[in-house]
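Retry 2 of 3 after timeout on previous attempt. Resubmitting structure tokens to design endpoint.
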């Protein structure tokens, strides 16, 4: 309720802006839909972020990415927010399959919407970071084995994982204490025996050098004040990736909670640390874009600071 003034304004943008193309069909399954956030400048093709939203594998929805989509579109980056089946409509293998099919659609079709198929970045937040990491690793394994694939890991320039969990065996007790009870979580993950299979950290340790070589640059973002998924999850996974020979780095946000970096900070307006970090990587080879958007209007504040601070104290996330 405290953040509702901001959510109403974002909702108005989501439903009525000509820059938002909602519910593009990418597959045959229920919820195989994605939203596109398209930059105003359509004079040339633009970089694309394929974004998989979070939601504890239960309440994920593509519109959760509207704040990020709006902010990145303002910086000349197209965002495709991929929806997927949630539990109990589907379990983790269904979610990974949906995400992979959404990525495939983006790789094949984004040029028709003004996106650059040679500048595609994959990003996930919370449960979406886990799902998209699983999809990326699964694709690398399939590609290395010469199996039939519909998109290539080499088409992804970088992977951004925001506030994700990458070792389900280590997190099951933590989630139980946080209210995602063990029995439900195991149902989502298709049983205890499947936890290792759907733990990117464990899978990465088993990858061959050839499979590791296929992976794009991996950048993990996490707030040190996150009590939904501890920042140690990203710290440990980055270490595993580096030891395996992958290109990986970690960006920690001191004191930021699970929702700070994704909800509260964008609502504040001004310079958003996460957006700035993502944009700096995407536009790293395009100094003209950096200069252009540095001089663009600063995003307006959507919620008063006192409301954000109170909401931050009572948020269950």
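Retry 2 succeeded. Sequence:
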């Amino acid at each position: 309720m405290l953040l509702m003034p901001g959510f109403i304004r974002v909702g108005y943008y989501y439903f009525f802006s000509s820059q938002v193309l909602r519910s593009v069909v990418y597959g045959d399954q229920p919820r195989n839909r994605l939203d596109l956030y398209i930059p105003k400048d359509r004079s040339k093709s633009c970089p694309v972020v394929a974004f998989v939203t979070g939601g504890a594998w239960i309440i994920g929805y593509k519109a959760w990415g509207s704040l990020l989509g709006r902010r990145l579109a303002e910086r000349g980056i197209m965002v495709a927010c991929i929806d997927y089946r949630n539990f109990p409509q589907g379990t983790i293998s269904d979610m990974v399959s949906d995400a992979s099919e959404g990525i495939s659609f983006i790789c094949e079709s984004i040029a028709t919407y003004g996106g650059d198929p040679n500048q595609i970045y994959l990003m996930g937040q919370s449960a979406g970071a886990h799902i998209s990491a699983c999809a990326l690793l699964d694709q690398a394994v399939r590609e290395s084995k010469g199996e039939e694939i519909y998109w290539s890991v080499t088409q992804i320039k970088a992977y951004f994982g925001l506030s994700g969990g990458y070792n389900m065996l280590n997190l099951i007790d933590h989630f139980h204490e946080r209210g995602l009870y063990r029995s439900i979580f195991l149902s989502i993950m298709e049983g205890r025996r499947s936890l290792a299979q759907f733990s990117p950290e464990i899978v990465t340790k088993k990858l061959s050098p050839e499979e590791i070589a296929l992976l794009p640059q991996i950048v993990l973002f996490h707030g040190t004040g996150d009590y939904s998924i501890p920042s140690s999850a990203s710290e440990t996974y980055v270490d595993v990736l580096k030891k395996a020979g992958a290109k990986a780095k970690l960006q920690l946000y001191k004191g930021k909670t699970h929702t700070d970096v994704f909800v509260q900070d964008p609502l504040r307006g001004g310079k958003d640390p996460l957006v700035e970090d993502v944009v700096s990587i995407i536009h790293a080879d395009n100094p003209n874009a950096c200069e252009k958007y540095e001089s663009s209007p600063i995003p307006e504040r959507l919620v008063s600071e006192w409301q954000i601070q109170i909401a931050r104290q009572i948020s269950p996330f």
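Attempt log closed. The chain is about 45% helix and 15% strand.
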